[in-house]
Amino acid sequence: MTVRLIVVLAVLFSTIILPLNVCAAELPPIDETVKHLQQIYEQTRDFQASFIQETTVKSIRKTDVEEGMVYFKNPKQMLWDYKKPKAKKLIINAQNAWLYLPQDKAVYTQESDKIFKSEALIKFLSGLGKLSDDFTIQYAAPDAIDKNGNYLLKLYPREKGASYQYLEMTIQKDDFHILQVSFDDVMGNATVLKFPGLKMNSGLSSKLFRFQPPPGVSVFKMP
Length: 223
Known about the structure:
The protein is α+β, with helices and mostly antiparallel strands. It has a single domain, classed as Lipoprotein localisation LolA/LolB/LppX (outer membrane lipoprotein receptor (LolB), chain A).
């Protein structure tokens, strides 16, 4: 699995959506919602959470579930530390990205700028991008909020050749934190990542985002 693919699969967030029809008059203008969301993530120094990732392969109707911890630190630093069912780590800092698969005794590495330039959502979460520049955004229809009043958005990437048609995003109504992001890839495979217990600005150390391949592993440089 390439670094690019694992990044795309990794970027998705918490709580199951239970939609509820609402009148459009109850919603703030979409530009206002996007502005608040952008401001929150520009002001965020770091965040961490546990996660449960569900990936459904359409062709065989099989869903794989993985669990772990995720850490972000602005700018350009993140760690996805998978614990179950198999350990693996995706580490990204300003210089490099590594995908470490301990059971395979393999490390895949790539220059991190290639990821930040190619993945709009990663760029946004890492404090580099602006949602309105990278996506066309609208409220989901016909259900624009969930049962708790949180906002449901659809984000259509402006970049050509994106690996998904659109992202579905749930935004916390009170603090504009991202609760969930989900998407289907071009093959119809669905991915959802749930993040309970999100903690913002806890003072994560940059040492967390450094990686040295352990002895005895094969290192593969990705284009």
